[in-house]
Write a structure and sequence with these properties.
153 residues; 6 strands; globular; alpha+beta; six-stranded mixed β-sheet; Nuclear Transport Factor 2, Chain: A; 37% helix
Length: 153
């Protein structure tokens, strides 16, 4: 055989063996486990309790460093901006009580999506809205990476 020339059968056989290796490698990669619904509910309970306690520190512990908070038509906030928003709300509210209802959890590999309705009751009355949380597993903890509150109708 001359250099630079291949038999027609050389090309496909090599491609096929590469494909087999790739398939084998892909099938042996560990898949992230589904997050138990109870773990998501516990994290959301912690979020509700932290808000009701007006605790920026406890809220911060639940939020991922990459958090994005979307509230209606407002500009999305990163983690530090969201914590500043919570601090401002706590300054305006007296003893807020934060409750989630109709919580629906969709476990995902390495995380979960949770939809709910929230009610914040304070000296100003009650505020209600839908809310969505996207959570991911970070080590042994679940962290909230996205919070979305839809625009008011």
């Amino acid at each position: 055989m001359l250099l630079g020339k291949r038999k027609a059968s050389d090309g496909p056989a090599r491609s096929l063996s590469v494909a087999r290796v790739t398939e084998t490698q892909a099938s042996t990669q560990p898949q992230p486990a589904l997050i138990p619904t109870a773990s998501v509910e516990a994290t959301l309970k912690g979020y509700s309790e932290a808000y009701s306690a007006e605790s920026i520190g406890k809220l911060a512990a639940l939020l991922a460093p990459t958090l994005i908070r979307k509230n209606g038509n407002h500009t999305p906030e990163d983690r530090s901006e969201a914590l500043a928003t919570y601090a401002g709300q706590f300054h305006q509210l007296s003893h807020p009580a934060y409750q989630l209802s109709d919580v629906k959890v969709t476990p995902q590999a390495g995380g979960a999506l949770a939809t709910a309705n929230y009610t914040i009751t304070s000296q100003n009355g009650a505020v209600h809205s839908a809310i969505t949380f996207h959570l991911v597993s970070e080590g042994s903890q679940l962290k909230i990476v996205e919070i979305t509150i839809p625009p008011a109708p």
